[in-house]
Amino acid sequence: MMAAPVLTHVKCADCPIRHRAVCARCNADELEELDTIKYYRSYEAGQPIVWSGDSMDFVGSVVSGVATLTQTMEDGRTQMVGLLLPSDFVGRPGRSGAAYNVVATNNVMMCCFRKKPFEEMMARTPHIAHRLLEMTLDELDAAREWMLVLGRKTAREKIASLLSIIARRDASLEKGPLDRLEFELPLTREAMADYLGLTLETVSRQISALKKSGVIELEGKRHIIVPDMSRLMDEAGDDSDGGFLG
Amino acid sequence: MMAAPVLTHVKCADCPIRHRAVCARCNADELEELDTIKYYRSYEAGQPIVWSGDSMDFVGSVVSGVATLTQTMEDGRTQMVGLLLPSDFVGRPGRSGAAYNVVATNNVMMCCFRKKPFEEMMARTPHIAHRLLEMTLDELDAAREWMLVLGRKTAREKIASLLSIIARRDASLEKGPLDRLEFELPLTREAMADYLGLTLETVSRQISALKKSGVIELEGKRHIIVPDMSRLMDEAGDDSDGGFLG
DNA sequence: CGGGAGGTTGACTATGTTCAAATGGGGTGG
DNA sequence: CCACCCCATTTGAACATAGTCAACCTCCCG
């Protein structure tokens, strides 16, 4: 059950997230230094990576897989507050305790930096600090977009919003025609519910309803086919353009 | 009606938010330089400061007053995504267009930095970049806490959460006994509704309900008295500690 | 073949919304 | 000074959306 957590050491220069993660702007010398303070570590599907309140001795990046960031109330109500994809950053430099639960939904590979040396390096390496600022601003924008979803959208719009986000992310990788997208849902119905502030029954019902309306098609439980992306985005209630800003 | 927008020039060293805003860590030389690229500007209650989608030629800090950050759907549904208090930062370095509406709810004084020179200065001044990163991480934490409120709390808990946040903020200024706090609400019922993802009628009803339960007392519509802060925090459903982290 | 996790569906209920009307305080003009 | 009006707010009654509780399905795995 408990996987052996120790791992291959990949040179930063060969890392698959090299150009998108917190190290994206580092030069060769800086990468060398990062190499000396990092280690890879894997987590199995379902395993906790960090527990809220625990002290963290590392910060790091998701290299592969998907993890969730969740907050929980005493009575068990749970809200997902972030979805961590490859290149996303985990942990807060300058803070000792974790504020959220981080759980692997897939098998996840993390690139972990020992906290102390990373903080020291960040303090004298603008390339890292600036990239982290940029990434944090992006996350803040995403969180605020999500606040609109949580606060003001109907159950059907919430599902459509989540599906568009996942679809658009995948579309940016495998290019293709604007219509007819397919993708695999990386989340259970319960995780979707926690993301959207719904119950899992409501998630299930709305997915069925979108299927009945022909907005999506299902193949199994997790494979989604979107015959017409603009139709899905209409259902999400978003501005038509997709909201890209300079 | 339209106020003359131009203003007094206050030296950074004398600025009321000097030690908390984006300039908090700057030394005397850096403040001198900031002085040359900034101007003060005032906005009357209700006036827009920035309109979503407009291009911005400045970034800046709230010096006094309260402003809201909101997002709006085509059909008019609106969600507040941030509440800007003195020392909070407005605008995103590196991006030309505004992503949200910023509206003054009070009379607001802004300290505006011309965008281009500010960005250039930030690129070579770690004191500014690091402080902005720290502030952005704090905002991200606040946004995520708010996601839990929006997604998982009942109307009564939402109101109690908002009141505790405002009460705690004011309490950190005027120290006093832990129980028996009073404060002025800086928001209309409608703004509270937009913050909480509710209708203004529900906000009104739940405030009446909290009053009937003795959790709060009202003096007029906007002046709130909290006889027992721990009682209010129980109603908010938060963990008892208040969630401070290193 | 049995067990379990994830998912679907149905019937009923509860919470918050909608629509509508009433209240109340502050300011303006006569 | 007072009548009036405007706006924020409160309150009520009917309604709708999503939640709850429960049964059942279906796939995978041992």
From TrEMBL, chains A, B:
Task: List the Gene Ontology MF annotations in alphabetical order.
Answer: DNA binding; DNA-binding transcription factor activity
Q: Does the keyword Transferase apply?
A: no
State the superkingdom. Bacteria
Q: SUPFAM superfamilies attached here? A: cAMP-binding domain-like, Winged helix' DNA-binding domain
What transmembrane ranges does the database entry give? none
Residues forming the HTH crp-type domain are 153-230
Give the CC-aspect GO terms. cytosol
Keyword vocabulary terms for this entry: DNA-binding, Transcription, Transcription regulation
Q: Where is the Cyclic nucleotide-binding domain?
A: 22-139
The record's annotation in Pfam families points to: cNMP_binding, HTH_Crp_2
Does Protein biosynthesis show up as a keyword for this record?
A: no
Q: Please identify the protein, giving its name as recorded.
A: Helix-turn-helix domain-containing protein
